[in-house]
């Protein structure tokens, strides 16, 4: 079981960010701080939001890669374990057969 980040989650984040940017734009458009100041603040906040979104996407990609690597290791270990179990079983059968033969020789002698 691993970490799963669905596309729905990312689209929800994008939707919330878009809604936040629209609220900020509306607030700065109606404020008395002047048109230049409001626009520059909005641009700064939009840029910061875009940078955070890029970081989230980068981290998501890293997590997905990490999960894929762990899944690959898990599969390799399972295959190795099955091979070891099979080998152990064959050795036990060989020892058992050898004991049977030696017991038969003792009984027949």
Task: Explain how this protein is built.
By secondary structure, this protein is mainly alpha-helical. The chain has one domain (7-108). The protein is 90% helix and 0% strand. The protein has 2 helices and no strands. Helix 1 runs antiparallel to helix 2. The chain is rod-shaped. The two termini are 60 Å apart. The model has no long low-confidence stretch (mean pLDDT 78).
Write the layout of secondary structure elements.
Elements: H1 7-30, H2 35-108
Helix pairs in contact: 1-2
Search tags:
109 residues; mainly alpha; 0% strand; rod-shaped
Q: Low-confidence segments, ≥5 residues, pLDDT <50? A: none
| First-last Cα distance | 60 Å
> How many whole angstroms does the radius of gyration measure?
33 Å
Q: Give the SSE order as H and E letters.
A: HH
How much strand content do the residues show? under 5%
Helix segment count?
Answer: 2
DSSP E strands, number: 0
Largest sheet: none
**What is the share of helical residues?**
over 70%
Q: How would you classify the helix and strand content by structural class?
A: mainly alpha
Q: Sum up the overall morphology in one term.
A: rod-shaped
The total domain count is 1
Mean pLDDT: 78
């Amino acid at each position: 079981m691993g970490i799963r980040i669905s596309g729905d989650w990312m689209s929800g984040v994008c939707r919330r960010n878009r809604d936040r940017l629209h609220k900020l734009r509306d607030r700065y458009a109606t404020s008395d701080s002047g048109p230049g100041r409001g626009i520059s603040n909005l641009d700064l906040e939009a840029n910061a939001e875009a940078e955070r979104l890029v970081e989230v996407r980068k981290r998501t990609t890293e997590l997905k890669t990490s999960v894929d690597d762990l899944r690959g290791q898990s599969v390799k270990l399972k295959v190795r374990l099955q091979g070891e179990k099979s080998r152990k079983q064959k050795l036990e059968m060989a020892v058992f057969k050898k004991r049977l033969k030696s017991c038969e020789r003792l009984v027949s002698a």
